[in-house]
Design brief:
The structure holds two protein chains of two kinds. Chain A is built from eight helices and two strands. By secondary structure, chain A is mainly α. Chain B has two domains: 145 residues, 2-Layer Sandwich (Chloramphenicol Acetyltransferase), CATH 3.30.559.10; 224 residues, Chloramphenicol Acetyltransferase. In chain B, the strands form three sheets. Chain B has a seven-stranded mixed β-sheet with strand order 10-9-11-13-14-8-15, sandwiched between helices. Classes of the chains: A mainly alpha, B alpha+beta. Chains A and B meet through strand 2 of A and strand 8, helix 13 and strand 15 of B.
Chain lengths: 236, 430
C-alpha cells in the first residue's frame, strides 16, 4: 500500500498521484500491482444531450404564427380599417427571422444567418416603403446602402472574430472603429439624400468620441498594469 | 397517532409525488437535476447479464421505483411502467448528470456496473437514500443469489417473494405531518467556497474509507456522534478557508438531511426525510474546533425531536395543500419553484452532509460485499457535498465536487489523519 507523503492518507493501489494534492506516487515495490489494479472509476465520460432547441424553436414559431393569422384574417374581413395587418405580420416575420429561426438550424452557420437576416431586414423596410407610397426613393438611396454596409461590417466582424481568439481591447477598438465608419457613411448618405451635397455633422462628434476611446484602449493594450487594474475593476 | 397495518397494496398504476418530491421536477434544468448515487463494491467482477436478470426480478418488489414521470395539469405524477426494463449500462466517470423524462427508457434511476461495483443513480423524486439503500441491497442480494450464493432477506435486503405493502408505498409526510405549529425558517445567505468550475455534467469524486471504530472512538472522546463530528469538521474546514480568503465573513452552514423514520414509525420506501441547517457565524468571533463541535452537537440535539420535525413537515405540507397554490397550473408552478430554488435553495447552505447511517445486510451477504458508497449529487453552488454511509467497520465519506480544487476534501481527510484516524482515498481524478 502507498501513502501520500504530503497528506498522510492511504492511496488506492491504482493511483499514480494523490487525489488530494497531486503528489506523484513513487513506490518501486508496487509498480506491478499498480499496473494490474483497475482504476476505481472508468475513463468514459458521458455528456448528455443539450436542450432540444429545435423543438422549442418550433413551438415558439407556432406561438408567433397564430396571432399573425388572426390579424391577417381580421384585416381581410374588415378592409375598411386600412392595411394595418401588414405591419404586424412583417414585424413578426422579422422578429422570427432574427431571433427564432437560427435555433431551427441543426448547426449554426453564422454567415448564412447574417445573410438571411439582411434579406429579412431589407424586405421589412421595403414593406414600409411600398405601403407608405413615398415618392422619394429613400429605400434605394439610403436604406439599402446603409443595410448593405451594416451587413458588410457584420460579416467582416464575424470573420475576424472566428479567425482566432481576440483580446478584449482589440475587440473594443474594432467595434469603436466600425461605429465611426458607419456613422460617417450614414451622415454622408443622409446629407446627400436631403441636401444633395456631401457633408459631415453629427458623425463628427461620434467619430471624435470614438477616436478618443480608441486611443485610450490602445494605451490600455500597451500598459499591462492599467489593463490588469481595468480587468479587476470591471469584470462581469 | 395511527399506525397502519402492513397489508399488501393493490397494484397501483400511478402515484402522486410525495411532499418532498414535489419540488424536485421544478428544480430540473438542462444542466442539473437532484440525483444521488448509491454503489456497492463486491468481491468479484460484475457480470452484466446476471445483473440484468437480477434487476428484472427485483423491480416488481419496488413498485414505487418502477415508474415514469408524467405531467398532470396541476402536478407531476408517477405512472407505472408496462413491461419495460431499465438498461444496465457500463459505468461512467461523471455520474449523477441531469435527468430527462424520456431518456433511459423513461426510468428515473440508472443502473451501472464497473469492475466489482454496482451503482445506481436515483432521481430524488423517487426516494431518499434510505429507500435507495433498500433497493440496491435487494438488487445486489438477488444478483448474488443468481451467482450461486444463498442469501435470505433481512436488514436492508427485502424479500422479493413478497409484494410491497401499502405502508412501504405511502407518503408518510401526509400521515405524520399533523402539527399546528408554524416554525419560522428565515435564514440568510451563506458563504460558498469557490474555485475553477468543472465542465457541465462533470465533477470530481473523492471517497475516503475510514474505520468506523476509530472515528467513533474519537467522536466519543468529544461526546458527540459521527454525523456531528464530520459536520463540525466540514464547518471547520470551510470556516478556516473563508478566514484565509480575507473577505467579508459570511455565515457558514452545513445542511444535514435527517431520516424521519428514526422519529416516526414509518417503513416507506419513498422520500421521508427533512433537512436541518447547522450554522456558525464567523462575525461573532474566533471559533476553535471544539467550539464548532459543541455548537453543532447542541443544535442538532436540540432540534432533532419529533415535535420540531413534525412542525417542519406540517409547514411543508401546508404549501402542498393550500387550495390557492394547488389550483395553479403546473407550468406556472414549475416556474415558481425554479425561481424560489434559484433565490433560496443552495444560497442558504454552504454545503451538504448526508449520512445514511449504518447499512445492515444478512451475514451470508456480508462476506461478498466490501463497501457501500453514498454520493450526493453535485451542487449548483455548493462546491463539495458529502455523502456518508457506514457498512461493517467502514465509513465511506464521498465528496462530489464541481470545482477542480480539492482543498476542502484535503482539509477534512488530512484533519482526520492528524487526529490519528487512518483514511484510504480513491477518486475519479485521473
Amino acid at each position: 500500500m502507498s501513502y501520500c507523503v504530503n497528506c498522510g492518507v492511504e492511496l488506492d493501489k491504482s493511483a499514480e498521484k494523490c487525489a488530494l494534492c497531486g503528489t506523484p506516487v513513487i513506490n518501486p515495490s508496487e509498480l506491478e500491482t499498480r499496473k494490474q489494479t483497475p482504476f476505481p472509476y472508468p475513463d468514459k465520460v458521458v455528456l448528455p444531450a443539450g436542450v432540444r432547441r429545435r423543438y422549442v424553436a418550433f413551438l415558439f414559431s407556432m406561438a408567433v404564427l397564430i396571432p399573425n393569422i388572426v390579424c391577417g384574417l381580421t384585416n381581410i374581413l374588415f378592409p375598411s380599417t386600412g392595411i394595418w395587418a401588414v405591419y404586424v405580420i412583417s414585424s413578426s416575420a422579422l422578429a422570427w427571422v432574427l431571433f427564432i429561426h437560427p435555433f431551427l438550424w441543426k448547426k449554426i452557420h453564422p454567415y448564412t444567418i447574417i445573410a438571411i437576416d439582411a434579406v429579412a431586414a431589407a424586405f421589412y423596410i421595403y414593406v414600409f416603403y411600398a405601403v407608405g407610397n413615398d415618392e422619394k426613393s429613400w429605400f434605394f438611396k439610403v436604406a439599402m446602402p446603409l443595410l448593405l454596409l451594416l451587413e458588410a461590417i457584420l460579416l467582416f466582424m464575424t470573420y475576424w472574430l472566428r479567425k482566432k481568439k481576440r483580446d478584449w481591447p482589440d475587440i473594443t477598438i474594432a467595434v469603436l472603429a466600425e461605429i465611426s465608419l458607419y456613422s460617417i457613411c450614414a451622415d454622408l448618405l443622409l446629407h446627400l439624400f436631403v441636401n444633395g451635397s456631401f457633408m459631415l455633422s453629427v458623425s463628427l462628434i461620434i467619430v471624435l468620441s470614438c477616436f478618443a476611446l480608441i486611443l485610450f484602449f490602445i494605451s490600455v493594450k500597451k500598459n499591462r498594469r492599467l489593463r490588469a487594474w481595468l480587468s479587476r475593476k470591471f469584470f462581469v | 397517532m395511527s399506525i397502519k397495518t402492513e397489508h399488501t397494496s393493490k397494484q397501483k398504476t400511478w402515484f402522486k409525488l410525495d411532499n418532498a418530491a414535489k419540488i424536485f421536477p421544478g428544480q430540473n434544468s438542462s444542466k442539473w437535476s437532484n440525483i444521488f448515487r448509491l454503489s456497492i463494491v463486491l468481491d468479484k467482477k460484475i457480470e452484466p447479464e446476471i445483473l440484468e436478470k437480477a434487476l428484472e426480478q427485483t423491480i416488481p418488489r419496488f413498485p414505487c421505483f418502477n415508474v415514469r414521470m408524467r405531467r398532470g395539469f396541476f402536478w407531476y405524477y408517477l405512472e407505472k411502467h408496462n413491461h419495460a426494463m431499465p438498461p444496465v449500462m457500463p459505468d461512467i466517470q461523471n455520474p449523477c448528470y441531469r435527468i430527462r423524462w424520456n431518456e433511459n427508457k423513461n426510468f428515473l434511476f440508472r443502473v451501472y456496473y464497473y469492475e466489482r461495483k454496482i451503482s445506481v443513480d436515483f432521481y430524488h423524486a423517487l426516494s431518499d437514500a434510505y429507500g435507495a439503500s433498500r433497493f440496491i441491497s435487494t438488487l445486489t442480494a438477488q444478483y448474488l443469489r443468481l451467482s450461486g450464493v444463498e442469501i435470505p432477506a433481512g436488514g436492508s435486503v427485502l424479500d422479493i417473494g413478497k409484494k410491497a405493502t401499502s405502508a412501504e408505498l405511502e407518503d408518510s409526510f401526509k400521515r405524520f405531518g399533523t402539527s399546528k405549529a408554524k416554525p419560522k425558517r428565515r435564514e440568510g445567505y451563506t458563504y460558498h467556497a469557490k474555485g475553477r468550475k468543472m465542465p457541465a455534467h462533470t465533477m470530481n469524486i473523492t471517497t475516503g474509507y475510514i474505520p468506523v471504530n476509530a472515528i467513533k472512538a474519537k467522536a466519543k472522546q468529544y461526546g458527540v456522534t459521527i454525523t456531528e463530528f464530520v459536520a463540525a469538521m466540514l464547518l471547520d474546514v470551510l470556516y478556516r478557508k473563508q478566514l484565509n480568503e480575507k473577505r467579508k465573513q459570511k455565515e457558514i452552514s452545513v445542511q444535514i438531511p435527517v431520516n424521519l423514520r428514526n422519529s416516526f414509525p414509518s417503513t416507506t420506501l419513498r422520500n421521508f426525510s427533512l433537512c436541518y441547517d447547522v450554522r456558525i457565524n464567523p462575525n461573532m468571533g474566533e471559533y476553535s474546533f471544539e467550539e464548532i463541535l459543541k455548537q453543532v452537537s447542541l443544535y442538532l440535539r436540540y432540534i432533532n425531536n419529533p415535535k420540531e420535525l413534525n412542525a417542519m413537515m406540517s409547514s411543508n405540507l401546508k404549501l402542498e395543500t393550500n387550495p390557492l397554490l394547488r389550483s395553479v397550473p403546473l407550468f406556472i408552478k414549475k416556474i415558481g419553484i425554479g425561481i424560489s430554488f434559484f433565490l433560496t435553495g443552495e444560497r442558504r447552505t454552504s454545503t451538504l452532509l448526508s449520512n445514511l447511517g449504518k447499512v445492515d445486510v444478512p451475514d451470508e451477504m456480508r462476506k461478498h460485499v466490501e463497501h457501500y458508497i453514498l454520493m450526493t449529487g453535485p451542487g449548483k453552488l455548493n462546491g463539495a457535498r458529502v455523502g456518508a454511509v457506514s457498512y461493517d467497520n467502514t465509513l465511506a465519506l464521498t465528496f462530489a465536487d464541481i470545482y477542480k480544487e480539492s482543498d476542502i476534501e484535503r482539509g477534512l481527510f488530512t484533519g482526520l489523519v492528524k487526529m490519528g484516524i487512518p483514511v484510504k482515498i480513491e477518486s475519479n481524478r485521473s
